[in-house]
């Protein structure tokens, strides 16, 4: 591991097997992390055993009793220090994210910046965990509501954003007074361990008890322990719709809470009134960024019939300029898929397009040879399809863009909404009526609806999430913090009488 990291000029971020907060140290089996960039073994990480898991949860439960009593602004100060620690380690961690996951170096650094940004957001939030006051219908009574921390928050993250999405949950949960147990993707364990080590140092410097933040590593079975555990009131899970349905059902059976961020099948509508000079770059980045492995990746392009040929021609030309290769080389636009299973899914989707009668405008290809030894590099492709193709309604985590045409903006919105997922959406138009229709109750049914920007690239200040099979959860900004807390309504009688609600009379004499 050290050799690989040194070769990449990544200084080790405390990659040890220490105990305590670093809960991945155990006697479990080894989990190997291979880079999709060159198929090199980066490291072997010890998987969490069931005995380890029980110790982690017990420690977390104990830590909660201390952490929840630390004033929220003080918790915010500790999170501020975490943000500073990530600033110091941004270059190394960003490079590691790029190498272990396969996204471009710019995107890897950007993901670490998201951690820093959400830390900044959480610091301010620590002084703004507001409740409400309400007028009572009874005289000499006061009503208000307040929020208290839930307890242990279980975080299950996906490989495509191996550190940022964890931070969206963890930093908010921490300032809310919760403690966190993180189960990262088994495909990207090392970046998670790096993050854990960074914040562990901050917690120890502040003499915070062990268990405020813990990590468990392993396959889906480790995630099943989390979701079924009645000691964990909230599970936040990011991943496929299939996984989310299992998690949601399991948590619901024990009356727990779940925050689900699942699949996306995101579309951009391009109207005759669009500024194509910004629309085309937005489409290309949305479709090929992170090799099409973002939950907000652009997968469907709905183009007005009057400009269809023009947009198609410009897209094909733009795709010819894409450079595919090692994501650590900043001259490249597209890196590898996460593994060869993802490549197989890419190939299966292309075959399904052809079987349903679609036409390939930019032909798909799996790349081999020098620089592509891992077998995970594919060529971003474009297919002409019909909106009702079965494959078009399915999310494939790969750089495949489906083109289709429409005649009226109302028809385009129907096409946009006619998929099971509802995460991100966009329209490019300079016509105010078209834009407002898209954002209205008769418009996009997605959790995110944009005008004149693409489907990917959400800011942390807004609540992030989607509807339908995307799960309905909201993370990051706005009032997403409320999901990490329990709401309590309080009524105080400061008078000498006991008037009952709704004027009810209940005549029993009390002690004199």
From TrEMBL:
The keyword NAD applies. PANTHER family: ALPHA-AMINOADIPIC SEMIALDEHYDE DEHYDROGENASE. It comes from Arcicella aquatica. Keywords: NAD, Oxidoreductase. It is an enzyme of class 1 (oxidoreductase). This is aldehyde dehydrogenase (NAD(+)). Its EC number is 1.2.1.3. The active site is at 261. Homotetramer. Gene3D superfamilies: Aldehyde Dehydrogenase, Chain A, domain 1, Aldehyde Dehydrogenase, Chain A, domain 2. Belongs to the aldehyde dehydrogenase family. The lineage of its organism: Bacteria, Pseudomonadati, Bacteroidota, Cytophagia, Cytophagales. Residues 27-489 form the Aldehyde dehydrogenase domain.
């Amino acid at each position: 591991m050290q050799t690989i990291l040194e070769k990449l000029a990544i200084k080790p971020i405390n990659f040890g097997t220490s105990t305590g907060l670093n809960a991945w140290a155990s006697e479990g089996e080894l989990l190997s992390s291979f880079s999709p960039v060159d198929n090199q073994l980066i490291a072997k990480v010890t998987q969490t055993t069931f005995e380890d898991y029980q110790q982690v949860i017990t420690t977390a439960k104990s830590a909660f009793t201390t952490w929840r009593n630390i004033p929220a602004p003080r918790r915010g100060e500790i999170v501020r220090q975490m943000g500073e620690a990530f600033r110091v380690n941004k270059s190394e961690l960003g490079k590691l994210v790029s190498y272990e996951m396969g996204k471009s170096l710019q995107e890897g650094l950007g993901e670490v910046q998201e951690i820093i940004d959400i830390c900044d957001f959480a610091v301010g939030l620590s002084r703004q965990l507001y409740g409400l006051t309400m007028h009572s219908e009874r005289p000499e009574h006061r009503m208000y509501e307040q929020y208290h921390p839930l307890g242990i928050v279980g975080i299950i993250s996906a490989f495509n954003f191996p550190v940022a999405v964890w931070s969206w949950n963890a930093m908010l949960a921490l300032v809310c007074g919760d403690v966190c147990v993180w189960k990262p993707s088994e495909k990207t364990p090392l970046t998670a361990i790096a993050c854990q080590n960074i914040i562990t140092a901050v917690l120890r410097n502040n003499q915070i008890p062990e268990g405020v933040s813990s990590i468990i590593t392993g396959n889906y079975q480790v995630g099943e322990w989390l979701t079924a555990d009645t000691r964990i009131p909230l599970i936040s899970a990011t991943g496929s719709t299939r996984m989310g349905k299992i998690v949601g059902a399991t948590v619901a059976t024990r009356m727990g809470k779940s925050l689900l961020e699942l699949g996306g099948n995101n579309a951009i509508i391009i109207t005759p009134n669009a500024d194509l000079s910004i629309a085309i770059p937005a489409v290309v980045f949305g479709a090929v960024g992170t090799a099409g492995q973002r939950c907000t990746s652009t997968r469907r392009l709905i183009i007005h019939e009057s400009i269809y040929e023009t947009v198609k021609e410009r897209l094909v030309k733009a795709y010819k300029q894409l450079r595919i290769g090692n994501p650590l080389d900043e001259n490249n636009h597209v890196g590898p898929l996460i593994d060869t299973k993802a490549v197989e899914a890419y190939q299966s989707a292309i075959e399904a397009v052809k079987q349903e009668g679609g036409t390939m405008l930019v032909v798909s290809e799996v790349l081999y040879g020098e620089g592509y030894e891992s077998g995970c590099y594919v060529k971003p492709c474009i297919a002409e399809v019909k909106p009702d193709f079965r494959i078009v309604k399915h999310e494939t985590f790969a750089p495949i863009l489906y083109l289709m045409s429409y005649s009226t903006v109302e028809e385009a919105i129907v096409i946009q909404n006619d998929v099971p997922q509802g995460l991100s959406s966009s329209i490019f138009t300079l016509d105010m009526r078209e834009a407002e229709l898209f954002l209205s109750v008769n418009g996009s049914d997605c959790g995110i609806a944009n005008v004149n920007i693409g489907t990917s690239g959400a800011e942390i200040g807004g609540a992030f999430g989607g509807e339908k099979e995307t799960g309905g959860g909201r993370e990051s900004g706005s009032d997403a913090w409320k999901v990490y807390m329990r709401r309590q309504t309080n009524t105080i009688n400061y008078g000498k009488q006991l008037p009952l609600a709704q004027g009810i009379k209940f005549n029993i004499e009390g002690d004199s």
